[in-house]
Amino acid sequence: MDLTDLLNRVFYPKSIAVIGASAKPDKVGFICLSNLLEFGFRGKIYPVNPDLSEVLGLKAYPSIRAIPDEVDLAMIVIPAQQTITAIEECAASGIKATLIISSGFREMGTTTGQDLQARLRDIADGSGMKVIGPNTLGVFNPGNNLLASFQSSFSLARAGNTAVVSQSGGMCSYIVNALASHNMGVSKAIGLGNRCNLDFDEVITYLAEDDKTKVILLYLEGLEQPQRLMKVAREVVRKKPILVYKGGREELSNEATLSHTGALAGEFRFYEVAFAQSGMISVNSITELIDIAKALSLQPAVSGNRVAVLSVQAGGGIVIADKCRELGLVLAELSSATKARLRKFISPLNQVDNPVDIAWKATDFNACCNIINAVMEDSGVDIAIVATVFWGPTIALMEAVTNLTKDGLKPVTVCLDSPCGAADAHIESIEESGIPTYPLPERAVTGLAGLVEYGGIIRDSGQK
Amino acid sequence: MDLTDLLNRVFYPKSIAVIGASAKPDKVGFICLSNLLEFGFRGKIYPVNPDLSEVLGLKAYPSIRAIPDEVDLAMIVIPAQQTITAIEECAASGIKATLIISSGFREMGTTTGQDLQARLRDIADGSGMKVIGPNTLGVFNPGNNLLASFQSSFSLARAGNTAVVSQSGGMCSYIVNALASHNMGVSKAIGLGNRCNLDFDEVITYLAEDDKTKVILLYLEGLEQPQRLMKVAREVVRKKPILVYKGGREELSNEATLSHTGALAGEFRFYEVAFAQSGMISVNSITELIDIAKALSLQPAVSGNRVAVLSVQAGGGIVIADKCRELGLVLAELSSATKARLRKFISPLNQVDNPVDIAWKATDFNACCNIINAVMEDSGVDIAIVATVFWGPTIALMEAVTNLTKDGLKPVTVCLDSPCGAADAHIESIEESGIPTYPLPERAVTGLAGLVEYGGIIRDSGQK
Predict the structure, then answer these.
(1) Residue A152 and residue B443: Cβ atoms within 8 Å?
(2) Could you report the per-residue pLDDT of A137-169, keeping only the tens digit for each?
(3) Helix, strand, or coil (residue B277)
């Protein structure tokens, strides 16, 4: 069975067994089963627990062998010591995809834990089975109503075009939750945990061909064979951007680990170089990850870095200009023809320059359209940012931005804050028209710079 | 009249005249008047407009002179050319505080604009009057139901202990709106605009004595006499932290200004040194400003930098450890006695170390209390971070943190995300107990590092 078929069983299973399904609401084996049901999984569910005949309205089975039908994905939520038998039974039943939520393996740092994981791997490899985890939070595919995880909060996330592949379940959760909070949708999310015999390079290979995924986000801590990821990434980034956040950058200062600091810090530098060489965009925080992902999920990559800044408030324009400079963007020089056009629409109280000061004209839809058109049609402008503090009447400006996108606007990001959610409905509609929106001026620049960075990556990959 | 009396008239006026009050809803003179009323100003309001006898249910006056009573604050919302006469009339009527919303002065970069502003200043200085602005968004004091501004969104902000003093009205708005969105309250906010004859040093001197203000936030672009601010700040920071965000760091790349780049970049380095020497905390984004302000608004400064990290998810703990290192915090070495105590409460599946892995024990209130107590009572720990992804049952951990604060916890910040607002009510109650809460692990570290940075500033200022 090839990798695509195997991972289709993970992300699009027709049937799932939950080994260790429980009737006790505080047990992970209950929560996982309950999440499958609550999130509306449309396939068959087979709870497996020898002590139960029925759970959450479903018939329970005493063992994997007792399940009468084919099982695409087996979720395993039982103590580590018992997983070996379970995996053997899965293998004997021809199950090719398993998801081991349980911990107690290599992450323990003990010989017992390492041995258990090695045995899992041998059994899985011997039968052509893929094991997700162990020690993982599971798999999430909202477009297919699949929440195979204990992480109930994922039910708040909507389907979209951004995939999350994480070594850590916790970081996977922070990232998926942050996507949800930032009005972004998830195509697939997967926690790889201890990566028994399924690793980043394989999932990325699958996601490269997944037409639901436009942007791939990685959180990773350490890889045994980073060159495998790098090799795959180098090809995938020609089609889709890969953003990577590396955790575990430094071993910290208790005496036991201090002696390793130098070596490990060196290791992070190695990763940074490897990320850059293989065309991945490396980020330094979840915020940066989300901001760049949002831009790339909605807008095309761009090769030019000359930015026009259109701001209602001069202060926001200045901060944006500062951040542009910091991130390697250049303020476009507007042509004299553009300035002459702008002079007709910009208030006589404002100078015509870049940043373009929209000021009180932000309440005038037609003036805003004319201002934006003049700037966008200047051949010296590659990209733009439009920014305003939320103030009811300035929504005219946002309507002008939204209106113009249909005629092939240059790539643009928007800053529109939303105090206490006051502008959330407006933001939703701006983003529905394909324009990424940020609550703060600096973050709108981070997003725009991501489009330019990815443009450079595509250009470089074409030259190799 | 001394500065305190003058600025009390600005922030606690008993009566306000609105010169240029309008009956047309799209006019700034209407919006300013309407905001005063809507936000529940409790003093007298005197609209001034010779063309109106009544506006928004209030009697209108043809001129300042026609107002029968004393006016504490005059808001001026008329074209720039007419402000000279208005200010002369204010001076003749003995008004000591004026707020000029109108633009068209020095910010125009024209001789006319500069001359107008110089005349305003001469008149004001000659009569002992302070002019806020011109070219300002106004003044906001939610604790006194005062919204003397066109910025209606400020009505979403609650009263609290954080003051905002901004050269730019737009940046003042972004910051106040961000405070509101981050569950933080405002003591006073003021846009200084062109700083006709009221500047940062004077407002900070006032805020130093304002018992409603615990933290002072500045946004500034350029000062003619930075040493005046530095001198005042050096004293004020002994009592209250001052955070400063400097905009206009670099002149950007159109040809006309390129030749200045070197000089201006040098200027920012000068400001950075000046901020550091005078004990102000310099930040590089609104997000950083908010994150440090939140910590300082709720928690005390601290001198030690040895941090205990308590995380439900290992990945979050690792990212926090990375960020601690980046910001100069040190992972505390837990004593063997502490480790022995922790061993009793932490899952046998987890090692006992720092970061402390709370994992599934996060759902057990008593275990959480015992874990936190053990760490907090370790004399090698100065400060702590408690972090979890939002997942209903982990609220037990948050209740444990909240519960323990009453017994004099060491300074602590919390990371608890809130996908789509799902945990907002919990965050509200955690913060009511005095614990600053952040949506992402890295940001909780930024806040904690701010407490340590301010601790260092207080220590240094005591040694001078």
Answers:
(1) no
(2) 999 999 999 999 999 999 999 999 999 999 999
(3) helix
